[in-house]
User: Fold these one by one.
Assistant:
Number 1:
Amino acid sequence: MSEAVDVLVVGPGAMGCLHAALLAESGIRTGLLDHDAARAQHISERGITLERAGQERAVPVRCSADAAEFAPARLALLFVKAYDTEEAVQHTLPALGDDGGILTLQNGLGNYERITGIVPEVRVLAGTTTAGATLLGEGHVREAGRGFVHLGSPSGNFRRAREAIGFLRGAGIEAELAQSVTDVLWAKAIVNAAINPLSALTGLPNGRLAESEGLRALLDAVVEEAANIGRMSGAFVQEGIVNAVQAICRETGENRSSMLQDLSAGRRTEIDFINGEIVRRAEARGLKAPLCAMLTALVKGREEAATLA
Ligand code: KPL
């Protein structure tokens, strides 16, 4: 059955399920787009099981693998892995009609560029979220940290950015207009470049990385290196970024980073789009990012080892 939605969440992973449940629960017309029809049917039948603040509830959410069923959607909220971006945008197009927008809150650098290779810039928003979530099974998610969203329109379409902020706030998610999308994307990339591979390689939840002296020194060094490349690439990176990343480790202390979750589940990680992309951006400027290069090689080694098992 075809029925228009305000927000179409794309990707039923941890972040997609969390946001689809929060939006749907608040009465915003919400859909969830999955590429897997059998899983979509399962989620539609049972709803999303949301664990939040020690309570568990089932939230009915319409889920389908057919994007046209949600047309016309005002906004597609992209929560697929960075390596699936282009395919997911193509899959979403039938829901968007001529005017629907896309907001990416994905991890990694370069997602905005990948999306605007397909959809006109005026319809694309980008930003970051501090939300943490753990996928416990199909359509079953546990919130692992409240989200604060910074988003903006690199093309200057503030009407569309404000509309997206309105939807998120309507779902009780704190959201603000970013002064500079480049700055917020780099800030998040620096956080992810340090926390994600270190937690994935050690198997430790985020909080432990700031507790042990040796790991904290490594964490700080990766932050410094990534921040330097960010600055050389034109982003404003705050002076206190090292302390800020340690604070994020503590605030999301129990959370297993998304890269640790991916590696543990035998999924491909986003290392190429985080540390790998920082290395490429450094090299494009004649610079080096040896720690990011080493972490990229190690995580890719772990990915390869999983295929041998
Ligand atoms: O974004 C995250 C992730 O896991 O990908 C952090 C902020 C590190 C929270 O776990």
Number 2:
Amino acid sequence: MTRSVFAHVDGVLHAERVSAVSLAERFGTPLYVYSRAALTAAWQAYAGACAGRRASVHVAVKANSNLAVLNVFARMNAGFDIVSGGELARVLAAGGKAENTVFSGIGKSAAEMRDALVAGVKCFNVESIPELDRLNEVAGAIGKRAPVSLRVNPDVDAKTHPYISTGLKSNKFGVAFDDARATYRAAAAMPHLEVVGIDCHIGSQITEVSPYLDAVDRLLELVEQIEADGVKIRHIDVGGGLGITYDDETPPEIDVFVRTVLDRIDARGHGHRDVYFEPGRSLVGNAGILLTRVEFLKPGIEKNFLIVDAAMNDLARPAMYNAYHSIEPVVARSAPKQVYDVVGPVCESGDWLGRERELAAEPGDLLAIRSAGAYGFVMSSNYNTRPRAAEVMVDGDTVHLIRAREEVTQLFAGESRLPD
Ligand code: LLP
């Protein structure tokens, strides 16, 4: 649904009502382009399905942490899910509220815990006994009680890429299911902690509901045991992870996914509890594209290469996860298509953006790499001393520059030569 905001009008790809050609001319390439309408529609799908239920949505900041993107969500009263002190600072700078923010992550530092406690975050999602100990100590030192939930590893198979599957026993994440009950007892006995919930996150780019239902069943089983031990659980956080269409995947619609999960919790007799969701990709993934310009065509003996000005440093997902992103010309050419590997200028064979794509393109042409709104810019780097791309947000026929393109001198501004 959200893909339709990027559509061809008179043969030219548009973002809402703005031509991608004009965006590239005005801001240069590579360029991340987001659609406010698409962000809003995805949010409303979640919010609509939660309306009238005891459910709330926390935007996973890691998927796209640009202040303007976060601000679009904050204006709609979103909650946030953060994994670092840096992300907390972004949420606050973007107009989000600490009291609607949950703090996830496996290795929180004492300083991050302190800052989050002072800011007043809603809940710490804790993943181990040493982390509980540290949080208890930090909270005690500043005279506060930290609200905690334990991230439990439900040991379900999310049927996704191994690098982004997180709910199996073999993953580094969460408290093992069999240890959870005892860990809750330990948490409840710590004077500066207040147990408020339970959570899990089983992976990312999950395109079926069934792994969630398995995880929910496992969590509810535990909740009953934990409460039998006298520890009250107010909320159940089912994590993020709903997949999107990159190619031919058919994930459930957001509202169907939310309702199915909530209905299962109700049906199991737990409808009186608050339910949290922590989506990232399904809110922002198809709300963004990456525009890139063709530098050269390089015919080869075994393969033809199309060398573009975006690279693995701009969009790491293909190199890192073998991920597929659809690539299409901004202005369609009628010339015959050829099969190309679309690659960037970085000096690595792993620097590719698309393999074996049928395209008709000439140097100077613009291409759009789809589904780049999630884990795109946020995972970009300065490898090969490449300034990171600019980001813009389109809103109807208005365009906002939401991150200026980096200058080379900024890249080494913090460095220095040795003294003479
Ligand atoms: N909550 C927690 C605790 C998480 O670890 C994550 C993502 C989310 C929520 C959001 O999940 P989402 O709805 O976006 O799937 N870089 C990888 C994805 C890594 C996901 C890490 N955790 C990629 O580009 O595919």
